[in-house]
Write a structure and sequence with these properties.
The protein contains seven helices and 15 strands. The chain has helices spanning 3-9, 15-23, 84-90, 117-124, 144-152, 189-196, 227-244; strands at 27-29, 32-33, 47-49, 52-54, 62-67, 98-99, 108-114, 132-139, 155-156, 159-160, 165-171, 175-182, 201-209, 212-213, 222-224.
Amino acid sequence: MRLQKYLAAAGIASRRRAEDLIVAGRVRVGGRVVRELGTSVGDDALVEVDGRVVRPVAAHTYVVLHKPVGVMTTMRDPEGRRTVADLIRRAGIAARVVPVGRLDYDTSGVLLLTDDGELANILTHPRYGVEKTYRATLRGRLESDAVERILRGVRLEEGRAAPAQLRVVAVRRDVSLVDLTLHEGRNRQVRRMFEALDHPVVALARLRFGPISLGELAPGATRAVSERELAALHRIAGASDDEEEPA
């Protein structure tokens, strides 16, 4: 196993962050500092980070949370606001899980938390374009030209967003309800896309993250990832390994 992947499997950091640790000289293998990315290590290798021995986690924990509005997608908040860590502790989950990606403070919906740093890195990397579906309540009646702009890709300050899939759920005189599926994960992307169309988002919930759906999970509640969902997540991870391994 490559060293950066070994560190991610140990829950130390994402693979990208693990690469930074290696280059900075904070990782030793067999008592020797290793700075070369891609160094291979065996299962019985003695690997240390900042002098502490680390090993891959034998069995990872995967938790699905329905994040409510008014909760920070962080493990701590300097302003004292509620965080997903508070909800995880209340659910009695002792594993050191962290959020995969983030949801804004004023956005609710499905959120995956895990101690599998390798998988978390893959799921959030733009290269793999994991799908995310949101249900947005918009101000105003969404007309066909606005729908076409979403399908083609809305221009944002930093450049044109990738084309998205959109399904109009309901349209009333002063509000529209739509489902939007993205492959990107830009900061506050859904809200900014609809603001660019003069249809500000009134409420936003994420219904799906990759193979994981919100379903009937109540706000603030948690559940374990199902076997089918976990198998789908591992297929994504396997596909990424196939792309990165040399021929």
